Amino acid sequence: MTVVHLAAFAAPRLRGWPRLQAWLVDRIKRAALRQLHASRAGELLLLRVYLIGEEATEKTLQHELMPTAPAWLQRQVDQHLREEQEHSELFAAAMRERGMQPPAELRPDWLSRAKIGRWQRIARHHAPHFQQGVLVPAYAIGLCAEQMAERVLSRHCAVLPADHPLQPLLARVLHDEGKHVRLCMRTLSLSVSEAEMPHLQRLLAEARAVDRSFGVSGAVGMYLAGVWLRLRARFVE
Questions:
Q1: Rounded to whole angstroms, how far apart are CA atoms 205 and 144?
Q2: In a domain, 190, yes or no
Q3: Percentage of the residues of the chain whose pLDDT score is greater than 90
Q4: Which residues of the chain register pLDDT less than 70?
Q5: What's the rounded Cα separation, in Å, for the pair 90 and 93?
Q6: Is there a domain that residue 42 lies in?
Q7: pLDDT at 107 (0 to 100)
Q8: Which of 56, 162, 176, 203 sits between 20 and 30 A of 116, alpha carbons compared?
Q9: Does the global pTM surpass 0.85?
Q10: Is 146 in contact with 181 (CB distance < 8 Å)?
């Protein structure tokens, strides 16, 4: 099988409305982060969201990828799982430091559940088109999710002051997410033939469209949550 160049999996340059939408989402989310960090409850909400994301990745690795991963990939999947588990432990510890015990059972919000559901349907639809079966759509959607996490964490690190207590934690997770992006790219390059690339590009386009479709509404919701928690904290004081 011919190895596909990793550049083929990079996020495409956006044009027109998608580009404007991405700019709007970034501006709104930067403002939302400042609102959320203005209260302890807002900061805890951010940590909870990150913890839920890490645990969702763990479940995918354990229940969807690990049972089907070929021998050549198993060591990388194991390492990825260990790092996601470490991230979960770090976010949980940060919540405890701020006076909140992480819930025993974490459930994504309805927006995240809707996005995950659409990604799962895309994966099932495209799996029969690849020689490696479900492995390819699982890693394609995993790539989109890891690229999203890298973008989210980069923004968060940029918004926070350099001496903020959460900077070391976010920087560490950001570094690992960059590794996970490259892992997904390498796995796809080794799993897909040249003939399958057009179909993979359609799959990636659909998965990225799902991510963008929730962008503005999710950003506005995040901003409003930050404002409400900041005002509530002021009334409590």
A1: 10
A2: yes
A3: 52
A4: 1-5, 58, 61-68, 236-237
A5: 5
A6: yes
A7: 79
A8: 176
A9: yes
A10: yes
| H, E, C per residue of the chain | CCCCCHHHHCCCCCCHHHHHHHHHHHHHHHHHHHHHCCCHHHHHHHHHHHHHHHHHHHHHHHHHHCCCCCHHHHHHHHHHHHHHHHHHHHHHHHHHHCCCCCCCCCCCCHHHHHHHHHHHHHHHHHHHHCCCCCHHHHHHHHHHHHHHHHHHHHHHHHHCCCCCCCHHHHHHHHHHHHHHHHHHHHHHHHHCCHHHHHHHHHHHHHHHHHHHHCHHHHHHHHHHHHHHHHHHHHHHC
Task: Count how many domains the chain has.
Answer: 1
CB-side exposure of 45: number of CA atoms within 13 Å? 22
CA–CA separation, 49 and 123 (whole Å): 24
Q: What is the CATH number of the domain that holds 143?
A: 1.20.1260
The parent domain of residue 149 ranges over 6-236
Both tokens assigned to 128? 């029969």
Extract the tokens encoding 111: 């927006």
Residues in the chain: 237
Tokens of 70: 């070929």
| Residues contacting residue 11 through CB under 8 Å, at least 6 positions apart | 147, 208
Count other C-beta atoms under 10 Å from residue 26's C-beta.
15
